[in-house]
Amino acid sequence: MKSVGIVGLGSYVPERVLTNFDLEKLVDTSDEWITTRTGIKERRVAAAHETTTTMAIEAAKMALADANVPPSEVDLIIVATVTPDYFFPSTACQVQHAIGASKAAAFDLLVGCTGFVYGVVTACQFVQSGGANCALVIGSETLTRIVDWSDRKTCVLFGDGAGAAVIAPVPEGRGLLGFDLGSDGSGGPLLKAGALQSCYANPLESGFSGRPTLFMNGNEVFKFAVRVMAESTLAALQKSGLTIGDVDLIFPHQANIRIIDAAARRLGVSMDKIFVNVDKYGNTSAASIPIAMDEAKRNGLLREGSVVVAVSFGAGLSWASFVMRM
Ligand code: ACO
């Protein structure tokens, strides 16, 4: 089978920073509570002119520049998001037009925070099979537009941003080595945001305000996350014929430092093998892993030949991981 992997990365985050101290003025919380319970110090918030689509476009342009690939060579665009500007047209079609990828097929993927990892695995299948030659996978979210800013249990956790990766053939032995995708819809009610379902409810009874807002059972999601982060990493490594000792760097979904710590303990890896930037951006859902990978690359941490794991969990419930030799 053709070797296929990530050949370029890019990311975009809004300029506006919302610190824990800013949140202290909005809800009954404290920097101390947020820092010790989540590891988050600040997050980015999209300005009025910034949307999931505009951020996706910027991240896509940066990833293409990093890969030195012109938009005309891209023949597949996948955007992972739970916060699209529109139900339709898809975010991916808008990116396709904006960057001038005139021969690209384009579609969105709605898998919650797990979407980018699902997208990379999907794009790799297309390129490996010859169904595409060069794909763009983007995770982009404006979660601050669907959080309930009066709910201290959730509003402190999320932020906005976008990250993108270019997927193309790579030298033999490099690229995607294995993956693990999974879902358990029975956990759907633990983490959700309404869409058309809200229209069927009686607004007087449901309290529906006209804007879909995010609901999360934090404790249950926490337990689920710790379990699947370790299990999925090991499953993907087994399919790759590797062990945890072969891994140079792990990119966990950046949701909560305690989840990351607990998963690292279960895997028996030290924190210096785990990339963390949740302190700066909070949980950016599908954008969290590509933003982290791009930052790592710019910091010289993605060396040629190094083995990396990306592992995520999220709404669905869902989980996903891939192992890649850079
Ligand atoms: N500030 C101050 N106090 C707070 C806050 C806050 N922001 N939020 C909750 N509290 C209070 C609660 O009201 C509760 O008080 P009480 O005991 O008087 O009722 C107390 O703190 C403890 O609340 P818990 O919910 O038990 O706190 P916990 O330690 O579980 O931390 C958290 C909550 C951070 C949400 C944790 O459960 C968590 O991280 N869960 C996973 C979240 C996650 O990863 N989500 C991502 C989902 S997937 C995706 O990425 C979309």
Assign the CATH superfamily of the largest domain.
Answer: Thiolase/Chalcone synthase
* CATH class assignment of the largest domain: Alpha Beta
Helix-strand topology string: EEHHEHEHEHEHEEEHHEHEHHHEE
Measured between the Cα atoms of the first and last residue, the distance is 17 Å
How many helical elements? Answer: 12
- Identify every distinct bound molecule in the structure, by name, code or SMILES: acetyl coenzyme *A
CATH topology of the largest domain: Peroxisomal Thiolase, Chain A, domain 1
CATH architecture of the largest domain: 3-Layer(aba) Sandwich
What is the count of β-strands?
Answer: 13
The pLDDT mean sits at: 95
* Rg, Cα atoms, Å: 19 Å
Quaternary structure classification: single chain
Description:
This protein has 326 residues and is an alpha/beta fold. The protein folds into 2 domains: 4-173, Thiolase/Chalcone synthase (Peroxisomal Thiolase, Chain A, domain 1, 3-Layer(aba) Sandwich); 176-325, Thiolase/Chalcone synthase (Peroxisomal Thiolase, Chain A, domain 1, 3-Layer(aba) Sandwich). Strands 1-7-6-4-5 form a 5-stranded mixed sheet, sandwiched between helices. Strands 8-13-12-11 form a 4-stranded mixed sheet, with helices on both faces. A two-stranded antiparallel ribbon has the order 2-3. Helix content is 35%, strand content 24%. It has 12 helices and 13 strands. The protein has helices at residues 20-24, 31-38, 52-67, 91-99, 115-129, 152-155, 197-200, 203-206, 218-240, 257-267, 278-281, 288-298; strands at 4-12, 17-19, 42-44, 76-80, 105-109, 135-142, 160-169, 175-183, 191-193, 214-216, 249-252, 307-314, 318-325. The radius of gyration is 19 Å and the shape is globular. The site of acetyl coenzyme *A (ACO) has 24 residues, from helix 2, helix 6 and helix 9.
